[in-house]
Design goal:
- The complex is a heterodimer of chains A (123) and B (200).
- By secondary structure, chain A is mainly alpha-helical.
- Chain A has one domain.
- Chain A contains three helices and no strands.
- Chain A is rod-shaped and about 165 Å long.
- Chain A starts with a helix and ends with a helix.
- The relative contact order of chain A is 0.03.
- By secondary structure, chain B is of the alpha+beta class.
- Helix content of chain B is 40%, strand content 26%.
- Chain B is built from seven helices and six strands, in the order ααβααβαββββαα.
- Classes of the chains: A mainly alpha (123), B alpha+beta (200).
- At the A-B interface, helix 3 of A face strand 1, helix 3, helix 4, strand 2 and strand 5 of B.
């Protein structure tokens, strides 16, 4: 490199590295922008936040639906179980009445037989 | 609290629970199963046991169809009853039960409020029949049937208000037809010679 060229390069480098004061109001602008960003969040933060909220809402709704479905199934099972117990109780009542009826039939038959024998004896 | 204190409290709790259970049973109005029942059940080849307290009867009534004749009559019949207690034992051989055992069962109802309606003893066959009614203030409040055949023993105890006219109307449930009405006849018609000298 020629000495003239070298001087030119050094001058340009010095000029580029020279400390210059920031334009007036830059700091204020930057601070304002930072505050605004913090307030509304940057785009990706907002996206994540929205995603989280939607996720929680979906999970809550799903849980609610699950709980309702579970409650419904439980209610139905309880109802069926009560129905079965009721039918069994009804059957027991009918069995008890059948046995009672049978016993009373026997009583009646014996009494009728006794009356018949007593009638024959009187004759 | 020391151990003795805990033991005393636990004991009191157990006693209270026991008293509550006994009170609940007494409220149901059903007799406690005497030991003779267990002996009979052990010897029987076939046992049918039905014990229904008031709560169970009320519960069963909810599942009876008012449009079905039998159900409607049964529902009407059990309305207000305090309990139904039925035991039916079938034995393979004769002599599986003794007269003493029967007497133990009868003794349970030898109280002033139970009146014998039918008491029959067949010497030849060894069959015995007892029908007792519990009458309170002129109203039938219970019925006890003890029917013993050589190979079969039936015990029926119904507690609560029993309307004979409802019993008589009950039809269609195996063997119940006119028999119950027949008992009404026995109850209302004095039959002094229906009581036989027994083989007891």
């Amino acid at each position: 490199m020629a000495p003239e060229e070298m001087d030119e390069f050094e001058r340009e480098l010095r000029q580029a590295l020279e400390r210059r004061p920031a334009p007036p109001g830059l700091k204020r602008k930057l601070m304002a922008q930072r505050s605004a960003n913090a307030a509304r969040g940057v785009w990706w933060t907002r996206l994540v936040r929205a995603g989280h909220t939607r996720g929680w809402a979906t999970a809550t709704a799903a849980l609610l639906l699950l709980a309702m479905a579970g409650g419904g199934v439980r209610w139905e099972l309880d109802k069926r179980q009560e129905q079965r117990r009721g039918e069994a109780a009804r059957e027991q009542v009918m069995t008890a009445l059948r046995i009672t009826g049978h016993a009373l039939n026997e009583v009646q038959t014996r009494l009728a037989e006794h009356d018949r024998q007593a009638g024959e004896g009187e004759r | 609290m020391n151990r003795r204190g805990i033991a005393i409290r636990l004991g009191a709790l157990a006693m209270a629970a026991g008293m509550l259970t006994a009170a609940a049973r007494a409220q149901e109005g059903l007799p406690l199963a005497p030991a003779v029942e267990k002996e009979l059940a052990a010897k029987a080849s076939d046992v049918t046991e039905v014990t229904l307290g008031k709560n169970m009867l009320d519960f069963a009534a909810k599942f009876m169809n008012d449009k079905n004749g039998d159900d409607a009559q049964a529902k009407k019949l059990i309305q207000g009853l305090k309990g139904i207690y039925v035991r039916e034992y079938t034995f393979d051989k004769e002599g599986a039960y003794s007269m003493e055992q029967l007497q133990q069962l009868r003794t349970f109802f030898e109280t002033p409020e139970w009146s014998p309606v039918v008491r029959e003893r067949e010497r030849k066959s060894g069959e015995t029949t007892d029908v007792l009614m519990k009458v309170v203030n002129g109203e039938t409040q219970g019925m006890f049937i003890l029917e013993a055949a050589p190979k079969e023993l039936t015990i029926v105890l119904i507690l609560g208000p029993i309307r004979m006219e409802d019993l008589g109307e009950l039809k269609g449930i195996g063997g119940l037809g006119g028999a119950l009405g027949g008992l009404g006849g026995v109850q209302h018609t004095p039959k002094p010679n229906s009581k036989k000298g027994g083989t007891e």
